[in-house]
Amino acid sequence: MADQRARIQREASAVLQPGEPILAAVRATTQHVGVGALGGLLMVLALSVEQRNIARDSGFPAATNMLLAATDRRLLVFRRGSFSRSGRFLADIQFGRLRRVSMDGQGLNKGLRFVFDTGASVAFTTYRTDHPDRFIETVNRAIDTRLALVPPIPPRPTIPLVLPPPPPG
Questions:
Q1: CA distance 106 to 108
Q2: DSSP class per residue in 73-101
Q3: How many CA atoms, within 13 angstroms, populate the side-chain half-sphere of residue 37?
Q4: Percentages of the chain per state (helix, strand, coil), in multiples of 5
Q5: For the ranges 54-58, 67-71, 103-107, 110-114, which has the lowest average pLDDT?
Q6: From its phi and psi, is residue 97 left (phi > 0), alpha (psi between -120 and 50) or beta?
Q7: pLDDT tens for residues 41-74?
């Protein structure tokens, strides 16, 4: 996918905050289990929907076919039609909820793995031509910036152990 940030910026203008730029974007799909192809198209579709539901249960507003756009503040998730470049806005994920994004796999398509602050992780397939390495670098830099802005949680004060009074007698 060629750099589509300007087009995405225009199409997402209704959900972007003033001065919020699109920094990187990739197409993503739910991960397909290779064995699913042996069961035919219906099996692949069923597995795609199952993977989408697993991602949603983990807190990621997934669709089987998505466009993920990173701004300097959050990750925007759009549902893409099969033959459409544009998408319908689903939801956003604040960078404070994410801990890391990484790349899985080798070959033509790559896997994107998102790890949440809860420890849950979800993975999607993306396309090498979308330069997922740049997307990952951009998102991780934004996550690190957001985490640096959040003050650390102070340690709990120690409570002195107070022994009960001795029994009378």
A1: 7
A2: SEEEEEEEPTT-SSEEEEEEEEGGGEEEE
A3: 4
A4: 30, 30, 35
A5: 54-58
A6: alpha
A7: 554 555 566 666 666 677 777 777 888 999 999 9
